[in-house]
Amino acid sequence: MSTPLTDPPPQGGGGSKVDARTFWQAIGCRAIGAAVVTARDEEGPAGFLALSATHLSADPPRMMVSVDLKTSALRAILAARHFAINYLRRDQEELIRHFGGKTELKGAERFQTEPWSTLSTGAPTLVGAVGVLDCQVEETIESQGTMIVIGRLVAYTATQDTEPLVSFRGSFR
Questions:
Q1: pLDDT digits (tens, 9 = 90+) for 78-108
Q2: Rounded to an integer, what distance in angstroms lies between the CA atom of residue 159 and that of residue 173?
Q3: In the chain, is it the N or the C terminus that has fewer CB atoms within a 10 Å radius of its CB?
Q4: Residue 156 DSSP label
């Protein structure tokens, strides 16, 4: 005999406006690979902890990242017209704190704790990351205090036999 599946009662909102705290709780139910998005312009390397980096299409191969307009690295992405999405290994949780602004390190100082290289565009790429997607910016869309940056995937690298660092329900595992 099987047990019928039922949906749990709705949380938050319940027909009312969903506030920012409830929004983050809601999207926390999706498990995502922890990523740092990077770029390099004439002022040096810049990066931030990416909470929204995903594919847009396979043909053409395009990725997109959402960047708060107040994020300092946005200037470098727009000036250089590139970005790299660096998916972190399970043992690289310290980078979450550095690029998430939870340590004293700022700007280019954040790049001094791990080895970095480049692929095609010149964006910094994390050596030994689970994977790196190197993108050339094609389009930007500004909406509600956020810049959606769409880039064409031009190069990638992946490290075999590594465990990813995953964000789920507000913590990293």
A1: 999 999 999 999 999 999 999 999 899 999 9
A2: 19
A3: N
A4: E
CA-based nearest residue to 141, from 76, 40, 67: 67
Task: Output helix, strand, coil percentages for the chain, rounded to the nearest 5.
Answer: 20, 45, 40
Q: Which amino acid is at 147?
A: M
Give yes or no for residue 122 having a pLDDT over 80. Answer: yes
pLDDT, tens only, 130-168: 999 999 999 999 999 999 999 999 999 999 999 999 877
Compute the C-alpha angle 147/137/85, nearest 5°: 80
Single-letter code of the amino acid located at 92: Q
Which domains, from first to last, does the chain contain?
20-160 (2.30.110.10)
